[in-house]
Amino acid sequence: MAEDHEQLALLKQAVRRPKVPDGTALAPERPIARVAVDVPLAHLDRPFDYLVPESMHETAVVGSRVVVRFAGRQLGGFVLERVAESDHDGRLGMLARAVSDEVVLRPDVARLVRTVADHYAGTFADVVRLAVPPRHATTEKRAGTSPSGSVDAPADIAGWAAYDGGPQFYRALASGESPRAAWSALPGAADGHDLAVAVAATVSSGRGAIVCVPDVDDVTRVGAAMARMLGPGRHVELTAALGPSARYRAFLRLSRGQTRVVVGTRAAAFAPVHDLGLVAIWDDSDDLYAEPRAPYPHARDVLLARAHDVGSGVLIGGYARSTDAQRLVESGWCRDLVPTLDDRRGRWARIEIAGTDDRAVAADQSSGRARLPHEAFTLIRAGLESGPVLVHVPRLGYHASLACQRCRAPARCDRCGGPVLQRASDQRPACAWCARDAASWQCPECGGTHLRSVVVGDARTAEELGRAFPRVPVVTSSGEHVRDEVSGEPALVVATPGAEPVASSGYAAAVLMDCSLMLARPDLRVAEESLRRWLNAAALVRAFRDGGRVLALGDPSLAVLQALVRADPVGFARRELADRQQAHLPPTVTLAAIEGPLDELTPLLDRSWPDPSELLGPAESEDETGPARLIVRTPRHLGRALARELQALQATRSARKLTHLRVDVDPATLT
DNA sequence: TCAATCCGTATC
DNA sequence: ATACGGATTGAC
Questions:
Q1: What CA–CA distance (Å, rounded) separates A43 from A60?
Q2: Any strand C atom closer than 7 Å to A72 CB
Q3: Those residues with Cβ within 8 angstroms of residue A611's Cβ, 6 or more apart along the chain or in another chain
């Protein structure tokens, strides 16, 4: 009976076995490879079936690299599946070459790549380039080793006890559960210790973890904490700076299961970690997490898609709380990990505001002199008695935007909420998104009807301070010249956001210069982003209980500065999210920006966008030489429908050889 | 009547 | 993107 069955099965296979063009023998089982071919064309973004010759049966395994002949060209690809039959009607081609049997694209990662491509209206080929590094053959031939023994759950979890629900979160990870949390971290957490404890708990339960941090220096710092916690050989570090061989070696250690923990920059979000138990991301609204290559995925969203798919734990941490993370908390998907009140008060520095007088600022700007209120001088002088003092200055070169003449609130378009800009001195102020003329603009805050341009001043701060404190060394850190660390000796450290050196025993004090200027940038997320930068700077200052003090120079009535004073990123995110909801702005809606020539964008207004959708523009670019932009926004539950429509648009355009349009779904910044 | 060329369509 | 096929054109 069983024999009959087998014979029948064999007979069936023989009948269904596809016609072979020449007499080449086919693989004995599953002789069809479903291949993701590396074609850049949007309308060809689907798998193609190829015959597997017997000689490649053992090599062209699922997840391996192959070379195929496609439309006359030899192209690379990945085997997504091996199947017994094809549903393709036409004649199948043979695999041209099986590159190696190394599994570099596991089905779970392939699924993630597809999900990310679909979410961002991009192609599989574009996304898989971000997920799988280029092959390095000599590295591949070397075998690596796995560390022996197991990792115990750390005993000292005092760090997590500072947060309500922290110990529970830790215990859940250690016992093999998959808790999800948005973590409002206390100063010092950027050293990676608490992250390492959470990872060690995950590893002790027999699972792996991914930790994403913004840049290479963070990888080094958090990687060091990880090594201290887990021991040697237990984690790999993955950054673009590694070079092809080292990068591929780290990737292979993970895909071969020799190491289960990765600390890396945005590309690590795709890392082939085995038995993923936790995905963690530090400072998730840092713009370095936005991939600059199409389709511009954000590492946070990649990790979240992955956690959703495999059911892993999630930890979104940072000094600031992104509105994106806050949305997840308020939807109930993530729990909220916030410091106990005592710890919040005691471990942040004492933060205060010195109001800047508008008239004085105007006078100073025209005379080109830096303005330091009396309180700032006093604070700096006192701070220098006991250590270095950080002077935080906004970066140069922001575009000027418009604000209310009376109350200085940034001007937003009264139709769509976009920023109001004046593109050139001879042009009328208009919305940068929908091009609505701002002639009839009225300030929703104070009712004012006059606009003023916010002139961005420059940072002569270092020079000025040097003169004011002649015997104190002045250290600068910004742009190209970033200093990682300073000693505990008294010094004035002038730094731009993101370039602040860490002080070995904390800064005695910090002055945050030009807070109003930072808020004058025309980006949709300015307030959120500014608070993030200020909190990151304030976190480098000693705790309140150790005498640490921060002085922010700006308008004390601004909600964002009040949140800074209270060290309350969560309260601010909650309020900001509510405001975005009111104004139909991300992340409470899905928004896509389409860029290209104006006459290509105008016809798009008539496409069948999801209902309801709002179309803003098309608007010419600021300098009129760049591409125009059309913005589409739709409720979040229609986000996928919007992405599908955009994919269809790209597909027909690529099939008809029309000019390329840049499509950015959920752009990280929007000017 | 046959070849060179153009356009449209499929690419396993 | 190529590449192929069917239609179209032009010269013998």
A1: 26
A2: yes
A3: none
